[in-house]
Write a structure and sequence with these properties.
Keywords: Hydrolase. It holds the Pfam family Abhydrolase_6. Helix content is 40%, strand content 13%. By secondary structure, it is of the alpha/beta class. It has a single domain, classed as Alpha/Beta hydrolase fold, catalytic domain (Rossmann fold). It has a 6-stranded parallel β-sheet with strand order 2-1-3-4-7-8, with helices on both faces. The longest helix is centred in the C-terminal third of the chain and has 15 residues, at 248-262.
Length: 264
Amino acid sequence: MEPDTIVLVHGFWVTPRSWEHWITHYEAKGYTVIAPGYPGFEVEVEALRENPQIIVDVTVPALIEKIEGILRELDRPPIIMGHSAGGAFTQILLDHGFGAAGVAMNSAPTEGVKVVPFSQVKSTFPVLKSPANRHKAVGLTAEQWHYAFTNTFTEEESAALYERYHIPANGGILWGSVLANFQPGPQETWVDYKNDDRAPLLFVSGSEDHIMPPAIQQSNLKHYKSNTVTEIREYEGYAHLLPAQKGWEQIADDVLAWAVEHAR
């Protein structure tokens, strides 16, 4: 029985609004589409900008718990797709036994992935330049957004998307993902790379992504040693904000076809 539901997990510096076109695209194909916000993110982008304390209060266990609660209510396992940090959360959800298939787009690394390309350092520097940011919500300027998210877009397109989607990000979670590889024991972004019981997983990589470049996706893929399907596809010319870049419809159709074909 094919999955009838698609769950879309957003990343940092954005909200579920960033999936708006994918939601209507998949709903038009007859799917039920759920795009959960992190705890407290049930409000609009503008409200989160005005009250960033909501963002500061989010923890990885709480947001995983929230999404797992939604998944438990479904009649059958959905296709789970995540972008950026949502890609890492998708990997965690699959590892926890959820989903019929998973797609991680321009995914943040899970624990143990130590590749750190220069463009990622530059993209995340606004947060990681100061340990004090571990207790703050840290936004990007329009210029920083253009470098990190929309480097293949025109300045006009980038500015419009910045205005529509951008919110500050949780500095504590970003710092935690960096420190995870230096602290003993499993941290918040740990997954069991040898879990043979998890659903099939597809990594999607934009060749021009600055914040989560192809090297990170390749390294993340190589960490998996399970007997479950784990594949990667790279799309030439795509930046980090791949779900909003011209031609996204083809990628949306490609990853859905892959997920349906491999769904368990």
